[in-house]
Amino acid sequence: MNTLDFIKMGLEASRNLTLGLLDDMQDAPLTQPTSKGGNHPLWILGHLTYSEANLVNHVILGNENPLIDWKEMFGSEREPVIDANSYLPWDQVRQTFDEVRAQTMQVLDGFSDDDLDLPSKNCPPGREQFLGTVAGCLLVLMLHPTMHRGQVADARRMADRKPLFA
């Protein structure tokens, strides 16, 4: 197995683990993970979608994020709200996640293992340690969904759902 195949496997594993829980919350998308609020499933799904589009298109490739209009809803500076009218419909966000992931995999198909050492084209200042290279960006893409998976698991508990081993 080469490094890019390993990265693709990691991306799919984190996707499947996280979406298994997220998809189960489609009927309760605004359930917060704690009694004090937090990132609800719809915000997490949109945030993961927006962030992946941003990392691949803007940070790695140097292009504009095609989902830049989502920044106000799902950017990391945005505090989630429990008003459904503040967000796009779940089905639209979920479909866009799949489209963004397919585009990410196409981009990876055009890379060689040597490309992983290339500097990212738009690394945010101060984030060089994590996002300064193509490999660093892809590592963040693999880990990011699993970080938010715990928040979805907590939201499921708040919705009185039993643990789901997706």
From TrEMBL:
UniProt xrefs under Gene3D superfamilies: dinb family like domain
Residue stretches making up the DinB-like domain: 11-152
Superkingdom, natural source: Bacteria
Signal peptide feature range: none
Entry-linked InterPro entries: DinB-like (IPR024775), DinB/YfiT-like (IPR034660)
UniProt-recorded name of the protein: DinB superfamily protein
Lineage of source species: Bacteria, Pseudomonadati, Planctomycetota, Planctomycetia, Planctomycetales
